[in-house]
Amino acid sequence: MTTAQTIAEALVRHVDDTGFNAHGLHVLTGDETAEHHWTPDVRREVHSAAKGVCVLATGIAADDGLVDVDVPIATYLPDVAFGAGTDAVTLRHLLTMTSGVDMPWTATELTDWPDLALEFLRRPSRGRVFQYANPSTYTAMRVLERRVGDVGDFVSRRLFAPLGIEHVPWQRCPNGYVAAGEGLALRTEELARLGRLVRDRGEYGGSRVVGARWCDAMHTDWVQREGTDPGYDRYAMAGWGGPGRLWRLHGAYGQMLLFDGDTVITVTADDHFGADAFAAFVADELERQA
């Protein structure tokens, strides 16, 4: 039995014993893989795991010289009216949730305003204050759209196609722009391909897809958060630190890519409150087997 199969069996037993409502599991360690599915491996919304896709798209555009993540976004949006201090916000700030723009989440945020990005940008910035918000990623992709054209098409050509992923549905707002940090549907195995790309620092199938620094940026230069639970006390470009020595891309209801060295655990689920306990078990199991 391979190491990947051993890990997969331990995780499957845990899911079956605890009742965590998982759909699919994919284990990658070195070049070994193992999978298990509790339900058919159809495409499902990966929620905030899509924020990692947005970081990779921005990185590809930066590699092409089309954007600079440390230049104020006002450079790319000369026709936009900004709130006080918001004109100094950069793409890096938007992708690390440190724009300082206060815009609380609502379930209908894509339709609450005539234009969500313009509403976000007209609000004042409180400085480099962390606030997790979907409008932050959405606005980043609206900036990117000015430089690459339709972001959904750009991602399909430059990111998904090299990974062999085709015809990916991505929710759009009433104005026709991708929902960005949500609304993306992938199979468990397709999400795992993104995990392999990130683990291998931007290479896939022997070809360079995105610069290594953008994969590294998902789990370095952490924004530290005080007074929060472990696993949510540090954030980088789309990546959360923890639990334990892991870091992860984490979408609502348990859509996760969990990274530990050359091992990547991909899980899709419909169990929002069980996801943290599953991630903690993964961290413990990988440490036990090290």
Automatic annotation (TrEMBL):
Q: Superkingdom of this entry's organism?
A: Bacteria
User: Where, by residue number, does the polypeptide cross the bilayer?
Assistant: none
Which Gene3D superfamilies does the entry link to?
DD-peptidase/beta-lactamase superfamily
Q: Name one Pfam family in it.
A: Beta-lactamase
Q: What InterPro entries is this protein classified in?
A: Beta-lactam-related, Beta-lactam/transpept-like, Diverse_Enzym_Activities
Domain named Beta-lactamase-related: residues: 30-267
Name the UniProt record assigns to this protein: CubicO group peptidase (Beta-lactamase class C family)
